[in-house]
Amino acid sequence: MQVLLTQTVEKLGEPGDIVDVAPGYARNYLIPKGLAVEPTPHNIERFRKVREQRMEELKAREQRAQELKEKLDGYVLTFVRKAHDDKLYSSVRPEEIASHIEEKFGFELEKGRVQLENPIDTLGKHPVKISLYKDIVAEVVVEVKEESAEPAEASEPSGEGDGGGDAGAEE
Length: 171
Hints:
Oligomer: single chain
Shape: elongated
Strand order of the largest sheet: 4-10-9-7
Distance between the termini: 72 Å
CATH architecture of the largest domain: Roll
């Protein structure tokens, strides 16, 4: 059975697409949920305009993603963490990486787009892939440095410590 999609349906199509689906799927799911209608000449013309707008929007989104990829490729994100024997006390998580990119570049990024199998929990440089749009992927470097205790100890005698007086007590 052919239906005209009115909204984006994952793995099926975009608004304005005429697709073949099983009759039961159309009758029991797509049409009652308002995701599809019958492909009459009136409906086809109505959703042609919606489809054109959607395609322009997708093209603009793809262009923005490509521009961001050019800015992000090779960019080094630096995080400072407390560590012991190269192991971090608090790992660098995808949401922190996404937040850092959003602050720096003004591009809203969901944490799910940061491709990390596990949070980063060791010092050093770690390559991280960021899925920006469909097949556009940027690769950044997350560098994790150890928080140094020396500057806090040097400023302590002046009496203006940042509350880090117990940093020396950890040893």
